[in-house]
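Technical note accompanying the year-one report. For the benefit of new consortium partners, we illustrate the data format agreed upon in the data management plan: each record pairs a sequence with a structure-token string. No post-processing was applied to the example shown here.
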Amino acid sequence: MIRRLSTKWVLAVLAAVVVPFLGFAWFVNAQLAERLSWNVARHYLVSLAGDLAGRLDDLVEERRLDIELWAEDPLVEWALGDYEGDEAVFVRPLRERFNRFVSRGGAFDLLLVVNADGEVVAHNTMDRSGAQMSPELLALVMGREYTSEAWFADAMAGDQSAVDQHQAQLFQGAEEDVVDPANYHVGFAEPVWGPNDPTLPVGVIYGLLNWSVVQAELDEVGERDPFSGFIGADLSSSSYSWLWRDDANTIIAHKDRGLYGMRVQEDVGLPILVESARAGEWDLFPEYEFRGNKKNAAFKHCASKEEGGLGWVVGIGINNEDISVTIEELSRLLISATLLVLLIVVLWTLLIARRTTQPILALEQGTRRVAAGDLDARIEVSGKDELAELARAFNQMTEDLQSSREQLVRAEKEAAWREMAQQIAHEIKNPLTPILLSTKLLRRARDEQSPELDKILTRTLELVERQVANMREIAKEFSDFAGARALAPEWISLDQLIQDVLELEAAWAEELKVEVVREGEGGELMVDPARLHRVLINLISNALEAMSKGGTLLVRVERSALEVSIEVLDEGSGLDETALTHLFEPHFTTKSHGTGLGLAICKRVVDEMGGRIELGPRRDSDGTRAHVVLPIGEAPS
């Protein structure tokens, strides 16, 4: 199969195109895919951290701006003013506006207006859900001494003040031990300037922002799963975010509420993250392991307190296995594309190889038909390429060969007939010459009334009879050589047939002083007895003729399961190289008489009986060895 041209073609294309392509695909998969995925993921983490930090900065700025706007509201200023008791008129509308702001905004739990003496002037009475605040909470708000609060002191000194994430004492109650973002707040305090002295605050407005608003910003990262498109639209990632205090060590927001207030370095055991966050403003964390998962994460510092922020540190992380999913997905895509390209290349190559090799296969079949002698073989020609030209040349060649063979056959027939006619004429002319001379002598004796007429007549008749018998023998040899009579096989005794032939030649052997020796038995076999008789007569006659000085003639017979071997070994003069080359050719003879058809007839007869015949020098002594092998045939029933 591998020796076929189409197979070699496919293998060549695979070696020249597919193998380098597979190597390139492997390189892309092993090198570029992983690097691309990891680099994109890490840069994406940094981008997400920066985006979340920006949104938190905006959130803080917006909530601070809310308090600033309230500090500039005339109702607040009037409520803090000294109008001989009439300032209480402004408290009720201010409270109503506070209620609407809190319930509609859903961010602040408490808005307070505190005068310079630390007394509450106004506050909201409804919570974020629009429900009335409890009397206990209202009593706690009204009865607290605010002058001891740091934010109050800062605001009365004319500075903005903010209280970072904490559990506000005003809201401590039954759920104070429950770690819930709703129990935590961020406080914003703004001074309220009086109309008479713009450098002296007349009071403070303070707002408590519920921490769940901040936590919601972080939870949104996990809910919208920004990595889902990166790792696959049908997959969810492990991405999540967290928030640290400005010390870059204390956890103040996390999807796992149990981590609230924990120290990253001391409690969580990840000092490397603290060191990285303190070393820069915006970067990737070193790869780390948390709760059995290897992770990659990025951080970004929010605006510092000097910049109006709270200096928080935002972090966003994802499990490494989620990024590996992207690599695996890319690898599967690359492998699928590679296999698809490989399949297309192989199929296309097979198609081209098939279309290309079909004319070659047709040419091969046509060549085999021509080699088998079928010169009528033709190849269908399609196209105008080199293979089509080759097919046309093949068809022209077979036409020329067919024409040449017809001419050659005619010439060979004519030559054979001429040669046969010449040989027959030569062989017949020899006996006709003495016949013609004898008849002329007889005619002259009759015309002259010769007293020797009877003797001449008797001698002439005897000569004519001998020459006619000779011509009949010549005709018989030509007939046998031509194969005019079909074989008539029958079961015979080979030993008896050999014995009959040796008895016919016994007188000649005795005259030549040749001792005839027989060895072995042949048993019965299926042959044409007359044809085999002639073969043995010819071989033994040739052997006796070669032994003019006497000697031993050995006839050896051996029988096996399927065939019989007959050897005739003489001690004659042997055969030269030329004779050995042309022994079985018609009309070749080393004698001065005969037609030269004897051995040619023997070979034809043996071949027709399914056997084989060989002549060559003896191995053990001088002389010639004639060897005939014949199949036994089926055993007689």
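Partners are asked to follow this layout when depositing records. Residues 47-322 form a domain with the Beta-Lactamase fold (CATH 3.30.450.20).
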